[in-house]
Design brief:
The protein is α/β, with parallel strands linked by helices. It folds into 3 domains: 180 residues, Ribonuclease H-like superfamily/Ribonuclease H (Nucleotidyltransferase, domain 5); 93 residues, Orthogonal Bundle (DNA polymerase, domain 1), CATH 1.10.150.80; 84 residues, DNA polymerase, domain 1. It contains 20 helices and 6 strands. It has a 6-stranded mixed sheet with strand order 1-4-3-2-5-6, sandwiched between helices. Helix 10 runs antiparallel to helix 14 and helix 16 runs antiparallel to helix 18.
Length: 421
C-alpha cells in the first residue's frame, strides 16, 4: 500500500498575505449642478455673459475638436466654468464669432489643461487669454509622474475622471447627453486644481518659473508650418529614390486638397499606407494603379481619377525638381547619432551638456525637457556660439526662446561643461 502524502496545512495568515490586494475604487468626479443645455442662440449667449460677469475668480476653459474626423482644428464645443456662474457649454458653430464673450473674459485669468492644444482653436473664434494658468504644465514643473487631467484629479482629489469620449466626433449634431456630461466634467475640477497646484508650486519655490511659462503661452498660435509636410507620411522611410518620393508628394498633396475641401481628416480619404504602397509600386498606367492590391477597396477607388493624375504628374516632374532624400524642414543640425562622425567636437559638447542638465534637473526636481528643450540643447552644442562663456551661452539660450528662469539655472553650468571637456 502506498502512503498518501498530504500537503501541509495552509497557514490562513500566509494565504491572506499572498492574495492580491483589492483594487482601489475611487469615487467618480460629479457635477455640482445639473448638466446645462448647449448655448446655441444669441439670447442664451447673452444670459451666459451676464452670469460670467456676476461670477468671481478665474474661468476654467476647455474646447472639444473632431481631430480624427475633420480636416480643420476648429472647436465644436467650448466649456466654461466660473465660481458664481456655474458651467456653460457653448456651440461655437452657431455663432459668427465669440468676441462678445472674449470681452467679458478679458479681465479674468483663464485656466486650461494643456493650453497649446486649445489656444489655436479658441483664437479662431475670437477668444484670446490675457493671463492664464496651465494645469498640465504646472504638473510637469512639479515633476508629477502623470500630468493628464484624469491623473491630476486622482492625485489632488482622490477621484476618478472618465475620458472615454476624448476622441469622439464633436462635429456631431445634436451632441449626445453622455458626451455633454463628459465635456462639463472636464472643466468641473480646474479651479480647484489650479489653486492646489499653485500652492505646491509656491511651496517648491517654482511659482515664478510657472508664471514665466504661462506668460510665454499667451503668444502661442500653433506649431510653425512645415515646408514639406508630405514628408510626415507614415512609412515614407520604405520609399527609395527621388522619383518615388515625388510620387508620395504628389499623392499627399492631392489627398490634402480633397480633405481640405471636404473638411475630413486626410486618412479617411486615403491612408498613408496606400500612398506608400503606390509610390513603391510606381505604376506605369492607370490600369496598373487600379490593379494594385491596396486599390481594391471602394474608398481608395473613389478618387481613382485624382490618384491617376497625381501619379502622372509625379512621372513628369523634371529631374531638377525632384525632392531630395533630406527634408528642407531640417534647418537644424543632423540627428545626434551622426555627430561622432560628422562633428565629434559637437558630439562631445552635447554629451557634456546633457550630463550637466541632468544634474540640475535632479537637483531641482524637474523633468529635463522642461529645464531646457532638447532642441535648444542640440542647437547650442552644434552651433557653439562664439566664446562659449556664460554670457554667450545665456544670449544664445534667450535667442532660442528659453525663459529667464531657465537661463538663470543653466547658463553657468553649460559654459562650465563646455570649458571642462
Amino acid at each position: 500500500m502506498t502512503d498518501t502524502i498530504e500537503p501541509p496545512a495552509e497557514d490562513p495568515a500566509e494565504a491572506a498575505a499572498e492574495e492580491p490586494p483589492e483594487p482601489v475604487v475611487l469615487p467618480p468626479l460629479e457635477l455640482h449642478e445639473p448638466l446645462p443645455g448647449v448655448v446655441d442662440d444669441p439670447d442664451m449667449l447673452a444670459a451666459v455673459l451676464d452670469q460670467l460677469r456676476a461670477g468671481t475668480g478665474p474661468v476654467a476653459i476647455d474646447a472639444e475638436r473632431a481631430s480624427g474626423y475633420r480636416y480643420s482644428q476648429r472647436a465644436y464645443l467650448i466649456q466654461l466654468r466660473r465660481e458664481g456662474a456655474g458651467t456653460s457649454l457653448i456651440d461655437p458653430v452657431a455663432f459668427d464669432d465669440l468676441r462678445a464673450l472674449d470681452e467679458v473674459l478679458a479681465p479674468t485669468e483663464w485656466i486650461l489643461h494643456a493650453a497649446t492644444q486649445d489656444l489655436p482653436s479658441l483664437a479662431e473664434v475670437g477668444l484670446r487669454p490675457r493671463t492664464l494658468f496651465d494645469t498640465e504644465l504646472a504638473g510637469r514643473l512639479l515633476n508629477l509622474p502623470r500630468v493628464g487631467l484624469a491623473a491630476l484629479v486622482q492625485e489632488v482629489f482622490g477621484m476618478s475622471l472618465a475620458k472615454e469620449h476624448s476622441a469622439a466626433d464633436w462635429s456631431t449634431r445634436p451632441l449626445p447627453e453622455p458626451w455633454l456630461l463628459y465635456a462639463a466634467l472636464d472643466v468641473e475640477p480646474l479651479v480647484g486644481l489650479r489653486d492646489e497646484l499653485e500652492r505646491r508650486l509656491d511651496e517648491a519655490g517654482k511659482l515664478e518659473w510657472a508664471q514665466e511659462e504661462f506668460s510665454a503661452l499667451l503668444s502661442f498660435t500653433g506649431p510653425p508650418p512645415r515646408a514639406e509636410p508630405w514628408r510626415r507620411t507614415s512609412g515614407i522611410h520604405k520609399v527609395r529614390g527621388a522619383r518615388r518620393l515625388a510620387l508620395v508628394r504628389s499623392l499627399w498633396e492631392a489627398r490634402d486638397a480633397i480633405a481640405r475641401e471636404r473638411d475630413i481628416t486626410p486618412g479617411r480619404v486615403l491612408n498613408d499606407a496606400v500612398i506608400v504602397a503606390i509610390a513603391r509600386a510606381n505604376p506605369a498606367s492607370r490600369q496598373e494603379l487600379r490593379d494594385l492590391d491596396v486599390m481594391r477597396s471602394r474608398g481608395a477607388r473613389r478618387y481613382l481619377d485624382t490618384w491617376d493624375t497625381a501619379v502622372t504628374q509625379a512621372r513628369e516632374v523634371l529631374e531638377r525638381d525632384l525632392p531630395s532624400a533630406a527634408s528642407s524642414d531640417a534647418d537644424g543640425p543632423p540627428p545626434a547619432r551622426a555627430w561622432p562622425d560628422r562633428n565629434p567636437e559637437a558630439a562631445a559638447r552635447l554629451a557634456a551638456y546633457r550630463t550637466a542638465l541632468t544634474a540640475i534637473a535632479e537637483r531641482h526636481d524637474l523633468p529635463s525637457e522642461n529645464l531646457l528643450t532638447p532642441e535648444i540643447v542640440r542647437r547650442l552644442a552644434w552651433d557653439d556660439p562664439a566664446g562659449g562663456d556664460q554670457d554667450a551661452v545665456a544670449e544664445f539660450l534667450t535667442s532660442r526662446g528659453a525663459r529667464p528662469w531657465q537661463v538663470a539655472l543653466t547658463a553657468a553650468a553649460l559654459a562650465a561643461a563646455r570649458s571642462s571637456r
